[in-house]
Design a protein that fits this description.
Layout lengths: L2 H26 L33 E14 L17 E15 L4 E12 L27 E12 L4 E3 L10 E3 L2 E9 L21 H4 L14 E9 L3 E8 L18 E9 L9 E12 L4 H10 L14 E15 L2 E10 L13 E10 L9 E10 L2 H8 L17 E13 L2 E11 L10 E11 L1
Helix pairs in contact: 3-4
Length: 472
Amino acid sequence: MPFRIQLAVLWRTFVFSCATAILAASAIGQQQPDTPPVQPTNQDPAGDSPQSLFPHFKDTRFWLSGQANFIFQAHPDFHALYSGKNSLSPNYEKATSRVLTLYTGVRLNNSTELLVDIEEAGGAALSTGLGLAGPPDLDIVRNPSLSKVPYLGRGLVHKVFALSKDKVENQRSFLSLFEELPRRRLEIRFGKFSVPDFFDINSVGSDTHFQFLNWTTDNNGAYDYAADTRGYTVGVTADYGDRNWGFRFAETLMPKVANGIDLVWKPWQVHAENFEYELRHGVFPKKAGVVRLLAYTNAANMGIYRDQVIQAAAQDAIPEITAHSWHITRKYGFGINVEQNFATHLTAFARFGWDNGKTESFAYTEVDQTFAEGVGANGVWWHRKQDRAGIAFVSNAIKKDHQNYLAAGGNGFLLGDGHLNYGRENILESYYTVHAWRGIYLAPGLQHFVNPGYNRDRGPVVVPSLRAHVEF
């Protein structure tokens, strides 16, 4: 079948199936949304690639696939001594989010490819995404006023420079079409992308389509990576890879304001640098694993918590982190990301993250320190090879300056109860993904929050969920 005809047929089927899934999701709960889902680029050591409704191109020059992700969540009434502008509502809520993505790509020659993804995101978030440092749905649009029309998700030029003649197998995906790559190589990517496409990934906790849903389970909560409201930025990455180790670097643009949709196109003033070293070696002898060491620095128009608290106290007012003239401040942080195979179909992961916490939480979420650990299992273990299951625990914290700001009544872009009786926000999350038929997957899940928004005067909160995922 000619490429153009196949593209048209797949697109029409994609739209029709998405519309059908939307109606099904509406029957579960009303659809009333930042970062799109992110998939790991390394092969899942616990199982096979997911099945799809339709076969993909056999011609390896091209890539055409799609995904539809619908997540229904709710929470019952919970105890709250008080609520503020940015609180999670203590009354019963329900919401359904959606993300529809069409992935395309073409390999121009043996070392260069062009990747373009079109996306549409909508629906709603519990309390419009406010009130939790670790929101329960990574697919939500944090700014509900954004246009619901499809937009360019990713647009990348990917160039591979061979540094050795021997080859290694590569798992084809929407981020890389090559079936094999030089063992030692330098990969350059330029364009629009999401930083967690390439940084801080692991095979157990990085994918909202098949794995966990919480922001601070799927990503390092203290990693305030450069992104607009939808989770994308523009920049360049350089990735050196060898057989057992690799190092990657990214230079990217930052948004104009916290959680903003517009980027600042002055990289000599506003910019972000990301560094990651990857050692493909298990912590335990004779067991596969990976250790990733992350560091980053951001330069942007960020407020300083202490300065705003002092200024507001002198005026007997409530502090406002954005009440300052344009000035460039810096945030920096680091992270450790470990995954370890315990058995053929059982893999554990752990993350630790830290940032300096003096400047405004700006692009991802309001976390200055985080620790997460979890385990994921593949259904081959119980003769359901496309099923997945996992459980994880996350503990998030903020620095003293950040605490004082919230306690004085200040609002961040996610948090603000009007007061604060500080305690670490602790999250327990579990899920089970069921392969229903061909490319259709269903996943019930449950999240339990203690001290939501770092506030001992509110909660605990239980958030059950149901995810419907279609792989095209």
